Amino acid sequence: MTKEQERARAHRRQEKLDAKAVQRERDAARNRQVAVVVAAVLVVVVAFVVLATKLGGDSTPAAAPSASDTPSASASTAAVEGCEAPPATPTAIKTQGLPDKATAAGKTFTAVVTTNCGDITLQLDGAKAPQTVASFVALSKSSYFDGAPCHRLTTQGIFVLQCGDPLGGTGSGPGYAYGLENTPADGKYPKGTLAMARTNDVNSNADQFFIVYDDTDLSSVPEGYSIFGTVTGGMDIVEKIAAAGVSGGATDGPPAAPISILKVAVTEKKA
């Protein structure tokens, strides 16, 4: 083989090596582009999941009373004078049918809610919210609320103690649901208001209710929440629970001072 042939052969060998190097660089660049695209997709997916978690679980604007959400917090507790240890949370819900609103229409009831921290007395307005009151009275008389923890306290912007689900905010309700009644046009819920919690569905009223312990503006939820009564005694108990704060130091979650309903006694007020 002549020197000229050797040089030509070496040249062809170098060209092949150069071509392979170029291809490797192209492959690496393509892989980097794919990695960037995959990372971007993952960021979008994670952002979507986070957003869905925040909006889907609560289905009403942040921190508004919702019947489908149980904010998580640590298990820290606070001792409050006058409170005994709460009972164990029930493990099942007593389902039943929707009571006839005619049983409460035009009537006024007094409900004494006995808790592990004392009695809270409510006046129920069947004239303005007959279906809501009929439901609350029927659930009370069937011992539905017995042992139910008040599972949610909010302490910033919205000031409510939420109760009514025997399973502590994780239950699916008593087996029925109904629509809104007596919602304030201005979205104002004064201290002492008794109203129903719900999901974003306006027909999802069921068992969960909330007590407003300081004036609260819920005008961010145009449809509002059904007001069906007022607190006439024992507000100091709710205020003590609120003063103890939320478990773990949050502003929305289980109360640091556990409070549970032991029983509810309802009587009709005669004219």
UniProtKB/TrEMBL annotation:
<dbReference type="InterPro" id="IPR002130">
    <property type="entry name" value="Cyclophilin-type_PPIase_dom"/>
</dbReference>
<dbReference type="InterPro" id="IPR044666">
    <property type="entry name" value="Cyclophilin_A-like"/>
</dbReference>
<keyword id="KW-0472">Membrane</keyword>
<keyword id="KW-1133">Transmembrane helix</keyword>
<feature type="transmembrane region" description="Helical">
    <location>
        <begin position="34"/>
        <end position="52"/>
    </location>
</feature>
<keyword id="KW-0812">Transmembrane</keyword>
<feature type="region of interest" description="Disordered">
    <location>
        <begin position="1"/>
        <end position="21"/>
    </location>
</feature>
<protein>
    <submittedName>
        <fullName>Peptidylprolyl isomerase</fullName>
    </submittedName>
</protein>
<dbReference type="GO" id="GO:0016853">
    <property type="term" value="F:isomerase activity"/>
</dbReference>
<feature type="region of interest" description="Disordered">
    <location>
        <begin position="58"/>
        <end position="77"/>
    </location>
</feature>
<dbReference type="Pfam" id="PF00160">
    <property type="entry name" value="Pro_isomerase"/>
</dbReference>
<keyword id="KW-0413">Isomerase</keyword>
<dbReference type="InterPro" id="IPR029000">
    <property type="entry name" value="Cyclophilin-like_dom_sf"/>
</dbReference>
<comment type="function">
    <text>PPIases accelerate the folding of proteins. It catalyzes the cis-trans isomerization of proline imidic peptide bonds in oligopeptides.</text>
</comment>
<feature type="domain" description="PPIase cyclophilin-type">
    <location>
        <begin position="118"/>
        <end position="266"/>
    </location>
</feature>
